[in-house]
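Hey,
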Amino acid sequence: MTIFVLKGITQRGKNRIREHGCQWRDCSPWESHWSTDLFLESVKTGDRRWLTNDFEIERTIQERDFELEKEAR
């Protein structure tokens, strides 16, 4: 599974990052070859939402690497 580190572009996006954190997990219930839509879940709060134009993906982390980063802190 992949963790996305997001950055808020609009005021709405910045508010969501402040409320729910910048790390989001892909929780799309399906895999599609024709759709680029991502349904994400906040690692911090569990809030779920679609990736919209309010956000930009800064980087991606594989979940196994994410767990190692957490342990190193």
